[in-house]
Amino acid sequence: MAMTLRLPDDLDARLTERARREGRSKHDLAVEAVREALDRAEPRVEDVLAELSASDAEILDYLK
Question: How many whole angstroms separate alpha carbon 41 and alpha carbon 34?
Answer without folding.
Answer: 11
